[in-house]
Amino acid sequence: MAFYTKVDYSRQLKQKAGTTATFSGSTQFYQEFSVQTSTEFIPEDDCPCFGCSTGATFIVGDYSATSASCNVTITSFSGQTGITQVLAIGQVPLNPLSGGTGAFYLTGSSLQIDRNTLLDSAAMTGEVALLIDEAGNVVRTAPSSLRYKKDLVKVEPNRYRDMLKQIHPYFFTYKSSGAAGFGLIAEELDRLGYRELVIYDSQGRPDNIDYRLLSVALLRIIKDLEKPNVGLVEPDNHTKVVNEDYVTNGEYLLVVNGNCNITLNSKVDKKIKIKSLSSCTIVPDKNKIDNKWESIELSGDSCVEFVFVKDLDCWVISSSDGIKDS
Q1: How far apart are CA 38 and CA 16, in angstroms?
Q2: CA-to-CA distance for 14 and 30, rounded, in angstroms?
Q3: pTM, entire model
Q4: Among 71, 173, 230, 275, whose CB has the most other CB atoms within 10 angstroms?
């Protein structure tokens, strides 16, 4: 027959290194629960986190001698000035300070994670940016290598052409903390259709802006500003002479020296002047010119300036002479 003795742990419990204390059922600790790893209890050579042998360590899970890592450790490094508490996950805690009790400098974080335990992570070199997803997982940022991607589609030209005029930076105050802030509004980008730059919550509401991807959108804007065969510091294509059917492509002045059709290209041009030395026909790439004409015929020795108006989604005539009946 087994006999059980009720032991009073209300004062103090010490456990020698190398021995095991097992608590079964529901165990509660009131006030403070401290685990000491000083050399009084665990010799330095036997401590799995030997770098903290003069401080205190709470270890969750077994120490792996082969990988020299613990599952989770909460460590307080002693013998130094400054905050030296470390929560380490999947690795031996590293002392966050260097320099002893004198001048010290930060060499590690108070939160240390073996990055190979992160979601979507692999053995990598260099630094890795981290995010917290909607479920509360700490994850690495999306990889950029083609090895992880498929269904590639190039961002269409002028996708972000009007974004700089449409979005507005704001100064504001956070409701929860009262702290001052500066930035963009997620709902504004969502309303304008730039959903790829918006981070949504679990209910599908705009919650944040992926500011990292704004630089990619700005790159598309810069590429749209650069005309074919022309550097950014140079003006547009100036003057071009054509004598056959042609689609406008960023010219300031187009001189038509032959009987042909000229198509206005709103994807590239927003304003163009056409000088005709012989009869020609001007055709818009969308809708009607001035919302009236499918096309316009120019007589020889005439000049017309066209402007594309986005709100009307059509080309309009801003100045002209020599237009025939259309």
Answers
A1: 11
A2: 16
A3: 0.42
A4: 275
> Which has more pLDDT, 289 or 226?
289
Q: What is the mean pLDDT of residues 107-116?
A: 69
Cα dihedral 53, 56, 59, 63, rounded to 10, equals 0
Alpha carbons 242 and 257: distance in angstroms, whole number:
6
285, 266 Cβ separation under 8 angstroms: yes
pLDDT in tens, 42-94: 334 444 444 444 455 666 665 554 444 557 777 776 655 556 677 777 777 77
Q: Both tokens of residue 32?
A: 């403070």
- Residue carrying structure tokens 């080309």: 315
| CA–CA separation, 206 and 187 (whole Å) | 6
The residues spanned by each domain of the chain are 44-113, 153-225, 239-323
- Distance (Å, whole) CA 254 – CA 39: 88
Q: How distant is the alpha carbon of residue 100 from its chain centre?
A: 39
